[in-house]
Amino acid sequence: MDIQGMEQMNRQLLNHVGQVIVGKENTMELVLTAIIASGHVLLEDVPGTGKTMLAKSVAASLDCTFQRIQFTPDLLPSDLTGIHFFNQKTGDFEFRPGPLFANLVLADEINRATPRTQSSLLECMEERQISIDGSTRQLEHPFIVIATQNPIDNQGTFPLPEAQMDRFMMKIRMGYPTKGESVEILRRTVASRSVADLSSIITREQLLEAQQTYKSVQIDEDLLTYIIQLIEETRKHPELSLGVSPRGAQALLKASQAWAALHGRDYVLPDDIKGLAEPVLAHRLVFRNRMRQQEGMAERIIQDILNNVQVPTENMTAGSGR
């Protein structure tokens, strides 16, 4: 698959998922960008805004193994990873894999599970492997977690630890639909159009190819420096106790390359980085005084940093075609 093929994949997925999801084109592009860059996605918003439907629609469009896990307070780590059980017929212990052994995992309402259960995702999200009873089992590629969560101030939720938040490439807010989109949603409700009507249009092999192709996208040295300047500004901000980690810098680089490829370019533009900075970086910020933290404050800090850090203006390298 080449860059043009990835652009075509992007258009196909938008049109396909658009049969059941009204609007949200940018959100769908962000989700696909993360998947292409082998990153995990956290969808956050109030109940009823379509988080689960969006994740299921994307999963239905990909010809990959899929598992949905409904997170609840009584969910145990072994419910995710699997267990060894004694088979009386054979007289041996056998391993029964859990739902994490899939290409695409929907972790629905992830912040309703206890921190102990949430922590069971740390190893598999970063290293694509699971350690059980002293043995390590590799997960099949691709392995992507799309998690949904309600705002942390909702009743019955547990905040995700910083270590786990840092493993999500992007945190995306759904937002309410516009008036016109709301009317269209009702029209489709009358017509009974649902995720069940979607079939897969992207094979596992095509997805794996795309996950290799995007890495050929060129990025100028000045833009690498620009990414690091943005990251360093988060570490010096007076309201933050922790800025963005090196993993976050790598995530912004990979997401920018994947975004460029999905839009038919073999080079990264400064606007790619600026447009992805908020969903990739904002959820990684840790405030000094969390009691004073307000909704959207992390996003505002990222926007302030983008406004204050000078954008590279020199011509791109020859490999960028400019």
UniProtKB/TrEMBL annotation:
Its EC number is 3.6.3.-. Pfam families: AAA_3, AAA_lid_2. GO terms for molecular function: ATP binding; ATP hydrolysis activity. Gene3D superfamilies: Magnesium chelatase subunit I, C-Terminal domain, P-loop containing nucleotide triphosphate hydrolases. It is an enzyme of class 3 (hydrolase). Residues 233-305 form the ChlI/MoxR AAA lid domain. Residues 40-170 form the ATPase AAA-3 domain. Keywords: ATP-binding, Hydrolase, Nucleotide-binding. Belongs to the MoxR family. This is MoxR-like ATPase. It comes from Paenibacillus amylolyticus.
